[in-house]
């Protein structure tokens, strides 16, 4: 889809906004990249792509799910996490 060209500023804001708002308001676009988060064996709380040594990593429920991500690791490693 191409955006209409050669519009006045007001028309541009109105017409482009209606086309771009659904993309910009998508929750996955509103995320935060947490890079190089060190994990130890056991529960790791991270306050709001995996790489490194081999480790099984999984999340568990948190008492404050909107603020805290709890990851469990089977080995010391570091991860990059995209949170949305």
Strand ordering within the main sheet:
1-6-3
Number of helices: 1
Radius of gyration: 20 Å
Order of helices and strands: HEEEEEE
Please tell me the overall pLDDT.
75
Instruction: State the shape.
Output: elongated
Topology, number of strands = 6
Low-confidence stretches: 49-53
Q: What class would the helix/strand composition place it in?
A: alpha+beta
Count of discrete structural domains: 2
Instruction: Sketch the major β-sheet.
Output: 3 strands, antiparallel
Query: What kind of assembly state do the chains in view correspond to?
Result: single chain
Q: Portion of residues in helices?
A: 10-25%
Q: What is the terminal separation in angstroms?
A: 26 Å
Strand content: 35-45%
Would you summarize the structure shown here?
With 84 residues, this protein is an alpha+beta fold. The protein has one helix at residues 9-24; strands at residues 32-39, 42-47, 50-51, 57-60, 68-73, 77-83.
Overall description:
This protein is α+β, with helices and mostly antiparallel strands and 84 residues long. The chain folds into 2 domains: 1-27, no CATH class; 31-83, no CATH class. It is 19% helix and 39% strand. The protein is built from 1 helix and 6 strands, in the order H-E-E-E-E-E-E. It has one helix at 9-24, and strands at 32-39, 42-47, 50-51, 57-60, 68-73, 77-83. The strands form 2 sheets. Strands 1-6-3 form a 3-stranded antiparallel sheet, with no helix packed on it. Strands 2-5-4 form a 3-stranded antiparallel sheet, with no helix packed on it. A hairpin with a 7-residue loop joins strand 4 and strand 5. The protein starts with 8 loop residues before the first helix and ends with a strand.
């Amino acid at each position: 889809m191409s955006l209409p060209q050669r519009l006045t500023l007001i028309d541009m804001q109105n017409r482009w906004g209606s086309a771009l708002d659904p993309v910009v308001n998508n929750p996955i676009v509103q995320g935060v990249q947490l890079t190089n988060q060190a994990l130890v064996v056991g529960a790791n709380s991270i306050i709001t792509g995996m790489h490194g040594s081999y480790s099984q990593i999984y999340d568990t429920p948190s008492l404050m799910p909107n603020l805290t991500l709890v990851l469990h690791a089977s080995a010391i490693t570091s991860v990059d996490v995209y949170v949305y």
